[in-house]
Amino acid sequence: MASRFMEVFSENLKMLIGDRSVLEIAREIGIPQQTLSRYLHCQREICRKEV
Fold first, then answer.
1. pTM for the model
2. What is the 3-state secondary structure (H, E, C) of 16-34?
3. DSSP class of residue 15?
4. I need a labelling partner for 37 at 20 to 30 A (CA). Which of 5, 16, 43, 49 fits?
5. Cβ neighbours of residue 46 under 8 Å, at least 6 residues apart?
6. Phi and psi of 29, rounded to 5°?
7. Tens digit of pLDDT for each residue in 26-49?
């Protein structure tokens, strides 16, 4: 079950990506396409480090 943070992050990410492909965005930001896909499907939570 996805946390509320993951759900909101996924929704915001989808909005930012718009009509572009996941592969295009992944290459642009320098992460694997599979990682970005997992973020979009709430299958992986982004690491939140305290500053």
1. 0.79
2. HHCCCCHHHHHHHHCCCHH
3. H
4. 49
5. 9, 39
6. -95, -5
7. 999 999 999 999 999 999 877 766
Answer yes or no: are the C-beta atoms of 17 and 47 closer than 8 Å: no
Distance of CA 41 to the CA centre of its chain: 8
Q: How many other C-beta atoms can be found within 10 angstroms of the C-beta atom of residue 36?
A: 19
Which contiguous run of DSSP H or E holds residue 35? helix 33-40
Place of tokens 């996805």: 2
Q: Are 26 and 35 in contact (CB under 8 A)?
A: yes
Number of residues in the chain:
51
- What pLDDT, in 10s, does the model give residues 17-31? 999 999 999 999 999
- For 4, the token pair is 């509320």
